[in-house]
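Re: weekly structure request thread

Next one in the queue (552 aa):
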Amino acid sequence: MNVSSLQKARYQYQPKLPGMLRNGISEICVKNGAPTQSVDDQEKIKALFPNTYGKNEITFQKGSNTSEAKKQVVGVILSGGQAPGGHNVICGLYDALKATDKDNVLYGFKGGPSGLLEDSYIIFDDEYINQYRNTGGFDIIGSGRTKLETEEQFAVVADVCKKHGITAIVIIGGDDSNTNAAVLAEYFAAHNSGVQVIGCPKTIDGDLKNEDIECSFGFDTATKTYSEIVGNIERDANSAKKYWHFVKVMGRSASHVALETALQTQPNICLIGEEVAAKKMSLAQITDYIADSVAARAESAGNFGVAIIPEGIVEFVPEFSVLIAEINELLAGKKADAFNELPSWNEKYAFIKAGLTAESMAVFEILPQAIQQQLFLDRDPHGNVQVSLIESEKLFSEMVKENLAARKAAGTYKGKFSPIHHFLGYEGRCAFPSNFDADYCYSLGYNAFMLIQYGFNGYLSKVSNLSKPAEEWVAGGMPITKMMNIERRHGHDKPVIRKALVELDGKPFKFFEANREKWAVKTCYVYPGAIQYFGPSEVCDTTTKTLALEKA
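Done, posted below.
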């Protein structure tokens, strides 16, 4: 296997564990906390999870290990999109399992949940595991987006577990994957299968968090990776002084990635979807806001700047959401065939105009033609608009361009506007994990095995106090049902983990809000540079600005 010098060095890195988990397996005991309840819809969630609801939160502390001594055969899967640090969760799980009893076994099911259904696996050993320590990616066993949610699937998983003598499954994933973990745990409990399910919180989007989960793993590394690139773009902009860079970053359902990248780099503009929704901002208002910065900078700093756009921004614009809903209705069923058979865009445009309300048509008309066509030509298998494919960075730069042209005609703007577009997505998902993510993920995996050893089921591996040095981190677990509420999905009420949106009264957003007017006009760029793995702790072990501000 060909490896780089950094990769060799990272193999040797020993992740830092919470002080309590360093005591040795035999000196770790459980401290019970209070019973829990779901964040909302308590009676409905309790009815759906009668065997796993309302359990206590727990923390691990120094003391005599009272768990039952038995051979553990554990299965692990990676579920959903990649996030830096996933390999270390598995390494931490493996090391704790082998430290407890060298005869314990860890199965890695390949390709995500489908590996469990198809009984496709490898059995980990030292030689295989050691190739993946402290590295990015999910290539150790691969991942997938199959959902475990039907009784038939659960029965197949139960048979696979019985075949191999598996005592526990660890599911490493985001909110949907951990929702599936909770439902699977309830199934196993109801059928007295003897199999436990433990979840680990993963997503670079940062929206799997709450009072218990301070940070999902991968968020730290991904935002540092994006911030390095944005910082590089800012330096280029400040050097050439002739381009406006529109940078779209990951985050369809929440704007945590955009906010964190802005806190690290201090661009001229950063849109926060949650604020757009709260203020019911129109496309025209957002365009005006960006154009004001372009015009003001043209007077002072020059004809250059940087704007950060979250991936899902258009879904937060109320008028755009209504437009999307009307388009989905307009092309429902066989009407889509009639639309697609029209030979020219002009005829299609007339069809659209006849089918939309006057309000939505007014929104549609101000969109650049390329975006108009994206709304109709790129559709998912259900016939709906694929919002994630809308190039919102190009949408806003085109609308700003038209806005500035009108200002120039009116004699209120004399600058030049030359936009360049970027989309930062996959670049951050498989980066070498930062020291923080390497430590955090290893701790999550190690801690997951402690939860297994003590017999917990339907729990999420929880490591908190993360803004402090790793020695002071607190390890424990919480019932996954604590994070759940009922949401309407595809016409049905479903129990799901509630997504965490950017809190507009939270300290990270308030800090951004207090500074953005200055950043919009002046050049206040910060250049974070590459992630550092070696050197002083204040350089190498820092966490996100978001977490630092939240815990300040």
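The CA atoms of residues 365 and 372 lie 8 Å apart. The chain has three domains: 67-218+433-469, 222-311+392-428+501-552, 313-390.
Next request, please.
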